[in-house]
Amino acid sequence: DHVTRLRSLLGALRRSWYLLAALTVIGAALGWVTTPAPPSADGPAVGGPQHVRATHTLLIDRIVQDDTTSVDLSQAAYLVLTGEIPETVATNLGLNLSEVEGFVLGVARPDVSSIEIRAIGTDPQRVTALADSTAEVLLTYLNDQARRAFEADRDEVVLELDRLDQELADLTGRIATNPPNLAQLEAQYQSLS
């Protein structure tokens, strides 16, 4: 059965080999004609607009206090995409918020204490402005954050000094009355002053 079937198939192939060869040549020719040429190194690029990337690198001074750094690089890089920073950049450049969020990325580089702000697009001037404006707004935000933290710490110290001054004034008033525990009050006064 199988042998007879194989002989009949080979017989049909021998009778119509020219048809099989002609279809193979036609298919190869169509494939060659419809395949686009590879881009040449000297010619213009094909396949759409060229994308450019602009990178703005912020070097962050690390101030170590109680085993913590003053700037969390990962958080600062994340802020490039969320909150008031992209909103401010969009307003400054006259863009939609989605244009800023979709084409800007913050990358923390803790090994070199820096943040890379990368922008991508087809217009080199716009991409550069986007990266530079984002870096400027982020730097302003980080400086404002550091200033607010400093002012909060300063206010806390001033309140503590005011409390100590009031306590010293109270002790001075009590010492002036010459109470029986005068030695104890004078020791408290000396420990506070």
Spatial order of the strands forming the largest sheet: 1-5-4
Average residue-wise pLDDT: 85
The SS-based structural class is: alpha+beta
Regions with little confidence, pLDDT below 50 for 5+ residues: 63-69
Order of helices and strands: HHEEEHHHEEHH
The gyration radius over C-alpha positions equals 38 Å
Count of separate DSSP helical elements: 7
How far apart are the first and last residues' alpha carbons, in Å? 116 Å
β-sheet strand percentage? 5-15%
Q: Please summarize the sheet with the most strands.
A: 3 strands, antiparallel
| DSSP summary, beta strand count | 5
Percent in helix: 55-70%
What general form does the structure show? elongated
Summarize, please.
The protein has 193 residues and is of the alpha+beta class. It has helices at 2-15, 17-34, 73-79, 84-93, 97-103, 124-176, 182-192; strands at residues 52-59, 64-65, 68-69, 104-109, 114-121.
Written account of the structure:
By secondary structure, the protein is of the alpha+beta class. The protein contains 7 helices and 5 strands, in the order H-H-E-E-E-H-H-H-E-E-H-H. It has helices spanning 2-15, 17-34, 73-79, 84-93, 97-103, 124-176, 182-192; strands at 52-59, 64-65, 68-69, 104-109, 114-121. Helix 4 crosses helix 5 (97-103), helix 4 (84-93) packs across helix 6 and helix 6 runs antiparallel to helix 7.
